[in-house]
Amino acid sequence: MNALPKDFLWGGAVAAHQFEGGWNAGGKGPSVVDVLTAGAHGVSRRVTEVVDPTEYYPNHEAIDFYNRFPEDVALFGELGLKCFRTSIQWTRIFPRGDEDEPNEEGLAFYDEVFDCLLSQGIEPVVTLSHFELPLHLARAYGGFRNRALVDLFARFARVCFERFHTKVRYWMTFNEINNQMDTNNALFLWTNSGVTLTEQDRAREVLFQVAHHELLASALAVRIGHEIAPDLQIGCMISHVPVYPFSCDPEDVMAAQVANRDRFFFSDVHVRGHYPAYALKEIERDGYNVGWQPGDEEILAAGTVDYVGFSYYMSTVVRAGVHNDEESLNGALSNSVPNPHVKASDWGWQIDPVGLRYSLNVLADRYEKPLFIVENGFGAVDEFASDGEIHDQSRIDYLRAHIEQMTVAVEHDGVNLMGYTPWGIIDLVSFTTGEMKKRYGMIHVDRDNAGNGTLARSKKDSFNWYAHVIASNGLAR
Ligand code: BGP
User: Fold this and answer.
1) Atom 9 of ligand 1 has which residue's CA nearest to it?
2) pTM for the whole thing?
3) Cα–Cα distance, 257 to 277 (Å, whole number)
4) Of 258, 311, 314, 433, which sits most exposed with the smallest number of CB within 10 A?
5) DSSP-assigned letters across all residues of 120-183
6) Region 9-471: CATH code
7) At 112, is the secondary structure helix, strand, or coil?
8) Which ligand 1 atom is nearest residue 175's CA?
9) Catalytic residue at 105?
10) What does the domain layout of the chain look like in residue ranges?
C-alpha cells in the first residue's frame, strides 16, 4: 500500500543567496546576507560597515547557479524531483528595495529559471524572503523596525505574484521567521532588523516591533497573492525545533512550554490571524511600546496562510533554571542542554527522527492546516573515496530515518502533509558557518571555503538512493 498521496511533493530546497552567486550581476543590489559571511567573520561584520567588494565572500559566487542553472536543473530532472524550493532575491527585483520600478533583468532571470524547472516537470516553490533583505533598507531605514518596510515588502510581493503566478503555485513569505524570537540568536535579529547587536537590540520590545511589521507584511502579501490568483497556495515558514523538558519535574515541563510558545508566536499569528493571549499579555505586562495602527487587526485577519511550511533538523531540551547565554551561531537554541538519548552531528545538531513525527502531530493538532516539510537534512564533511565517489551513507541514514517517521505520521496518525524538500539538494554555502565545508547536497560541487575548485557537479550515493525513494513514492527507502 502506498502511504503517501499520489501528488506528494518530493523535492529539494535551497535559498537563492546560498547557491546562485552572481551577487551583483544583472543589476542586482547588495542584500544584508551579501555582507554577512557568518562563521568565519561572525557577528563582528556589521551592515553599517562599508562593504569592500574586492573582499571574498563565499556567497558572492556561491556555486554559480546563476550561470549554470540549465545543467543543474537537468540533474534535478534526473533525480525525479516533483518540486524545487528556492527564493527570489528581493535585490534582483528591487536592488535598493525602495525604487519605483522593478528591475526587468532580475525578473527575466527568474522567468528563465522557472521555465527551465517546468520543462523538467518540476514545480517551483518560492520563498519571498530568505534572509535577503536589501542592504539599503537595513542601512537607511533600520530594516523591519521601520513601518515603511511593510509596504515595500508588499510591493515586492505584488510584483512577484503578478509576474510569476502562472508559473509558481506554491509560495512562502518569510523563511524561519520565528528564529528571531530567540534573543541570543544574533544572526536573525541582525539580519532582519538591519542593526548591530546591542543590549537595546536584544530587547523584547524591539523584537515585537520587528515581528509586528513582518507579520503585517506577510499578511498583506498573502491577501495580494490571493487577489491576483485565488488558487495560489501561500504559506508561512517556521523553524520547528521542538523543545522537550529535561525531566518530568513540573518546573522543567513548564520551562519547555514557555520555550515552545516563543517558537510558535509567529505561526500562531500567521495561521489564526490574531495575536495569541500569551504575547498580548507579555506586551502589556512588560510595558512594551509596539506601534500598532488602526486597521492592523483587519490586515492580520485577512491574510492568514494556506499551509504551514517548516524546517526540521533537530530537537532540543530545556531544564528549568539553566541558562546558556553564549551567542549561538551553530543553530542550537539558547538555554538548551544536551539530550542524553540522541546523537548529534559534527555541528552539535541533535539527530532525532522521532521528533519529526512528534512535530508533525503537534503542528497538525495546533493549526489544522496542511503541513509542508520544506527543510530537513544532514550537514557533513564529504570525502571522495579511493574509487573517486562520495559514499555519503550517514546522509542517507539520516534522511531515511526521517522519511520513515514522516510516513508513520501520515499513514498512522493521519497528518495532512503536502510534501518534503530536503535541504541543500545540491551543495551550497552553509548559512550559519558561511562555508562550503558543511555540505547537505546529493550533488557534489567542487568548491572549497576559499573559493577554489572547478565548480564541477557530481552525484553522491544519496543521489541514486533519493531517486529510488521518489520513483517509488517513498516505498523504496
Ligand atoms: C536553515 C536555513 C537555511 C540553511 C539551513 C542549514 O536555518 O533556513 O538557509 O542554511 O538552516 O543551516 P546551515 O547551512 O547553517 O547548516
Assistant:
1) 431
2) 0.95
3) 14
4) 258
5) TT-EEEEEEESS--BHHHHHHH-GGGSTHHHHHHHHHHHHHHHHHTTT--EEEEETTGGGGGST
6) 3.20.20.80
7) helix
8) 8
9) no
10) 9-471
